[in-house]
Sequence to fold (235 residues):
Amino acid sequence: MRLAGLTIAMLLGIVLVFVARRLEDDVPHLVAGTLPAEDDFALRYIQHPVLAYLHIALGVVYLLGAPLQLSYRFRSRHYAVHRRLGRVLLSAGFVSGIFALAFGLPLAFGGVWEAIATVVFGSWFMACLVTAFVSIRRGDAVRHRRWMIRAFAVCVGIGTVRIWIGVFALAGLDLTDAFAAGFWVGFALHVAAGELWVRTTPHPEHAMRSSPERAGPDTMGSPAAILDRPPEGGS
Fold:
């Protein structure tokens, strides 16, 4: 658990550094109305700032809030806040995904293979969010949480993608090819990791049930605990 938390914190740090560098490079051009010279990568952000920065801003909101939402301790102690914040974050994530497709499909720096990866993994992310939303509307909090884990796993993969792009570039790939390969490898690994986590890690409610001495009335009797009681079967 601690290793997973440290890994997530590192990946979020990578994403935030990337965002900060984009702002540092792009804001002067946006304010002055100029274009970067001989920088095709940055040019996309300057020419399409609405698509780019709505995707980035809403994506950062989702990424920073999702770990808190997935915390069983926070959910069980602050269930009303969890529900309200969940609506905001799910909406932010879904809209960010739409803008990711609108920006990444026609303007993929890594060419057609990056564009295809954007469609595949962006669609998977939004499908996870929709399934999670439908599940919680039906009262199935266990299934809801599992699909939100899948959604977060693939979304935070953008940090890993940046690492793989650097690895492939250092290995001698052209930068555009490194982007395409980085997208496929990074996001695919995160989809697999999310699925492995869901299938091998007990739901917090299950763990609490198996350890009666840890399950006091404040947790087992909370609204979150009641909603998290799994149905017979389900995934």
Summary: Residues 1 and 196 are 14 Å apart (CA to CA). The chain has a mean pLDDT of 87.
